[in-house]
Amino acid sequence: FIVNYIKDLPFDPKNEFEKRGIFYSLQTSIESTMDLIAMLIKDLGIQVKDDSTNISEIVKLRKLNLELGDKLKKANGLRNIIVHRYNEIDEHLILKSVKEVKDLLFHWIDILEEILSELS
């Protein structure tokens, strides 16, 4: 789901409709990643908490680079901004971050798949 939603996201929308599609795809992909992390936390026998804590747990368990966790927490903050339209969002700033968020989510998907493979 996540890969299909973001793999072909354009970096420069041609119109308002395409821009909304980019925002929606980012929002749902980040949200899905948070859900996957929460499900994995539960499968590992750890109590599921808020997204930030769940990310920190995975980072700690896997001895991942702390910056990787911080970037995902920031991406989750971006998701909240998109969803709730906080502070008259700077759409240009969001569009500039599309590639970085895509790369980050692909990296996290690889990590989650690796953990799931080890569990099965």
From TrEMBL:
Q: Which InterPro entries match?
A: HepT-like, HepT-like_sf, Type_VII_TA_RNase
Q: Which residues form a coiled coil?
A: none
Q: Which Gene3D superfamilies match?
A: bsu32300-like
Q: Provide the alphabetized UniProt keywords.
A: Hydrolase, Nuclease, Toxin-antitoxin system
- List the SUPFAM superfamilies hit by this protein, alphabetically: Nucleotidyltransferase substrate binding subunit/domain
Protein family per UniProt: Belongs to the HepT RNase toxin family.
Kindly provide the name given to this protein in its UniProt entry. DUF86 domain-containing protein
